[in-house]
Design goal:
The complex is a heterodimer of chains A (319) and B (239).
Chain A lengths: L1 E10 L2 E11 L4 E5 L6 H8 L7 E6 L2 E2 L4 H7 E4 L11 H11 L4 H15 L14 H13 L5 E5 L7 H14 L4 E6 L2 H7 L2 E6 L2 E6 L1 H6 L7 E5 L2 H9 L4 E6 L5 E5 L6 H11 L3 E6 L4 H11 L15
Parallel strand pairs in A: 3-8, 3-9, 6-7, 7-8
Antiparallel strand pairs in A: 1-2, 1-4, 4-5, 9-10, 11-13, 11-14, 12-13
Helix pairs in contact in A: 4-5
Chain B lengths: L2 H15 L2 H20 L2 H4 L5 H5 L1 H13 L1 H9 L1 H5 L6 H21 L2 H10 L4 H27 L4 H20 L8 H8 L2 H9 L5 H25 L3
Classes of the chains: A alpha/beta (319), B mainly alpha (239).
């Protein structure tokens, strides 16, 4: 439902987005990852029709965002970074304003506003000016605004940034709950989030697409994929024994004394290690098979190309 | 409901959402009264007209209209709500027009609230009410011209203070164009410059002649600066 072809954005000499192409289908929740200054927000602003691309095309629900912006914008809901709103308005008036601009008729508007208020738990703050609300509520108002017309395509720029853990969890559940019949793009730099909500992850840095896979496959790129972590008494003896298990590439010890046996590519080492513990009668407190560490994969991918997270080169933070 | 109407309503009510609007109205009424009675010596002039009242409007607007217009786009850019507004199914043109109209109507409300002056002059003498009506129309058109400059300057920056100062400076140019003949000189350049002056056209309207050329002049200034506003917003979106 979203097609992106050779999308490029240049600010003067600074290349913010570099020839990006991908497409997203309904039912997908796409995590958009990258270090700060990677071009995530710029890309989302172009998809939402705020910025014009220097070259390339964006098609939303069959409408080119440059050629038929009204139809494309009607098909999508967008939460800009930081969830901006009109601070002096109350959520009630704000949602009515958005409904009017989206040309919803009175009955539909009323029922949809009721629904999103329910979904986002805004009942208690309906008549308070948005500028007086907490960050969590402001974000919820922003999401309510984005989903008010029940769009097919939902673009959320850092929806959980700056929220406390409970609020983050709520927003993630909300996103997962809506995922069935929508196409959702979520940008984030919180990696745990990718696992929590996304069916697919794209990593960009320096405006370039570096990876486009399911979160599971991304994790499988990790050197910790298939590794076994454990905590045991008599750490040194256990470490020495683990190193001799076939398929184990190396054993790392962390500061807290826990051990991680890293598997050679493709090797299954959990069963042999488990057997070893039984036969040697090691006292083991924790034993876990690792899926792979997303943060390590992220660092490897984004540093591999020599791209440093150069947020310093971001254009114009002020006038 | 059309987008212009929706945005217009929101903008106009946002003026009244804070005390700023009421403070503005009080200052406008106080200043226009003070200037008329005190500096303009309205009572001493012994004339049943509002000439003294209207002659201060260009200078009053030079300072007060930028104050209305400064938040128009600068605030949207500062809070980031511009990104929200322009990703809704709204054309940039409609948004620019709606916001300008709200400011213009607000200025109109301030102007209408000076009606006690009109009553007073009718109570004290027998003024030419046609002239006064024309002057009100002229004054409102001139307010619109100042506001359109303000809209454009407000779009160029996220700082309301900078928007205010820029508007005053550009507004001054348009006032001085009208005074250029006072300083002497002739030829087509001077004529053209004088033709661009707000005061030239305002004075001609406030003589009681609603000449189409003067009306068209102010409407053209408004249209020109609103078109420039759209260009500036497009250019500065990425900042």
């Amino acid at each position: 439902m979203i097609e992106i072809q050779n999308l490029t954005k240049r600010y003067g000499g600074f290349l913010a987005v570099d020839n990006l192409s991908f497409s997203v289908a309904a039912g997908e929740v796409l995590g958009f990852l990258g270090p700060n200054g990677a071009g995530k927000s710029t890309t989302m602003k172009m998809i939402a029709g705020f910025l014009s691309p220097t070259s390339g095309h964006v098609t939303v629900a069959g409408f080119d965002i440059e050629q038929s912006p009204m139809q494309a914008k009607q098909a999508l809901g967008y939460l800009p970074e930081g969830a901006p709103a009109y601070g002096e308005m109350t959520p009630n008036r704000f949602l009515n304003f958005i409904g009017d601009l989206r040309q919803m008729d009175a009955a539909k508007k009323k029922s949809r506003i009721g629904t999103v208020i329910e979904q986002l738990g805004l009942q208690k703050v309906l008549e308070q000016p948005i500028e007086t609300l907490s960050k969590g509520f402001k974000r919820r108002v922003g999401i309510a605004q984005a989903i008010l017309h029940d769009p097919k395509v939902l673009i959320l720029d850092e929806p959980t940034d700056g929220l406390d853990p409970n609020q983050k969890d709520e927003v993630r559940n909300l996103i997962s709950g809506m995922a069935k019949d929508k196409l959702i793009i979520v940008s984030t730099h919180i990696l745990e989030e990718v696992h929590a909500v996304c069916t697919r992850a794209i990593i960009i840095a320096g405006g370039k697409l570096l990876a486009d896979e399911t979160p599971e496959k991304l994790e499988a790129r990790s050197r910790y994929h298939g590794a076994v972590s454990l905590r045991a008494d008599n750490t040194e003896a256990v470490k020495a024994a683990l190193e001799k298990v076939p398929g184990v590439q190396a054993v790392e010890m962390r500061r807290d004394g826990s051990l991680t046996a890293i598997a050679k590519s493709g090797a299954a080492i959990f069963a042999p290690i488990n057997a070893l513990i039984q036969t040697e009668k090691f006292v083991v407190h924790d034993l876990a098979l690792e899926r792979g560490r997303m943060d390590e994969v992220f660092r490897t991918i984004t540093n591999f190309t020599g791209v440093t997270a150069s947020s310093a080169a971001q254009p114009g933070a002020n006038v | 409901m059309s987008a212009i109407k929706t945005i217009f309503k929101r903008e106009l009510s946002s003026y009244f959402a804070t005390p700023v609007a009421y403070v503005f109205l009080v200052i406008f009424l106080l200043l226009s009264g003070l200037l008329t009675f005190w500096i303009g010596r309205w009572f001493e002039s012994g004339q049943a007209s509002l000439m003294g009242f209207f002659s201060f409007h260009p200078w009053l607007y030079l300072v007060l209209m930028p104050a209305i217009a400064m938040r128009m786009w600068a605030e949207e850019r500062n809070t980031g709500s511009i990104e929200l507004l322009l990703t809704l199914p709204v054309t940039l043109r409609d948004a620019v027009i709606a916001k300008f109209l709200a400011a213009w109507i607000f200025a109109g409300v301030a102007l209408v609230l000076t009606f006690p002056m009109w009553f007073l002059v009718n109570y004290l003498g027998e003024p030419d009410n046609g002239v006064i009506f024309a002057s009100y129309i002229g004054s409102w058109l001139m307010a619109g011209a100042f506001l359109s400059i303000g809209a454009c300057m407000s779009a160029a920056t996220r700082s309301q203070v900078i928007a205010f100062v820029l508007t005053v400076v550009v507004g001054l140019f348009f006032l001085f164009f009208g005074l250029i003949q006072v300083f002497g000189g002739e030829g087509w350049l001077v004529e053209t410059a004088a033709g661009l002056g707000f005061i030239t056209h305002f004075n001609s309207i406030s003589k009681g002649v609603l000449d189409l050329r003067d009306i068209v002049f102010f409407l053209a200034v408004i249209a020109g600066f609103l078109a420039a506003t759209m260009v500036v917003i497009e250019l500065k979106k990425a900042d």
